[in-house]
Amino acid sequence: xxxxxxxxxxxxxxxxxxxxxxxxxxxxxxxxxxxxxxxxxxxxxxxxxxxxxxxxxxxxxxxxxxxxxxxxxxxxxxxxxxxxxxxxxxxxxxxxxxxxxxxxxxxxxxxxxxxxxxxxxxxxxxxxxxxxxxxxxxxxxxxxxxxxxxxxxxxxxxxxxxxxxxxxxxxxxxxxxxxxxxxxxxxxxxxxxxxxxxxxxxxxxxxxxxxxxxxxxxxxxxxxxxxxxxxxxxxxxxxxxxxxxxxxxxxxxxxxxxxxxxxxxxxxxxxxxxxxxxxxxxxxxxxxxxxxxxxxxxxxxxxx
Length: 304
Fold this sequence. Notes:
By secondary structure, the protein is mostly helical. The chain has 15 helices and two strands. It has one domain.
């Protein structure tokens, strides 16, 4: 079963751990270390890869797969259902308004771009809400409780957060799809590379797995005002900048809404929560149950 799990994550281009993305990140890391030799020790250090926090990531990765498969996927409404609902109500309220003079190739480009932009925009706001709404922050702390970062830290996400992101995905993709079907008919599609949205594929090639790592790979300053680099996401994981760099791929949202920090400002980064909080996130059971316990404590204190 573990072999099948690993294989599914390695061969699916929609997964962050797709083998090509892992290889590209490894290549970027090797080149980076060649020119920045001081990071060689931390890149290969057992203190990072065998740290208790990393080991917990490995165990939780397997655990979360079964949680998502058995409990979360069945309750999250599908994007196709949302798309059908949107299309139906647009027809009902506005009648038949299909656009026929735009070519299929142009429709593909528009649909691909719109899917990517709307999805990234909604990811930004849900991520920001996870930090700024106290109850949601209790669940998101699970992700930020990682003391050291590795590619599987990406999957250190509480099931409640997974449910929220599942609904976010269905709503954003379903909304865009429903609108496009209404205007352009059912003959729509996206430009893909190996089954992944071409934009996701390209961005994933440029070090997506370094976002959760100790390799501070940054882009040029002007580029980081448009695209989130691995170093910028590491800055977000640092104790000093939890409220910055919420973006996933595009940096424009952070720039517009005042939450952007460039890599040059993040010098020495310390990951994790406050020292007194870290003991609450040291096992799978604590990652799952402590957010609920803390929420109940907060409610109880509010009543006193």
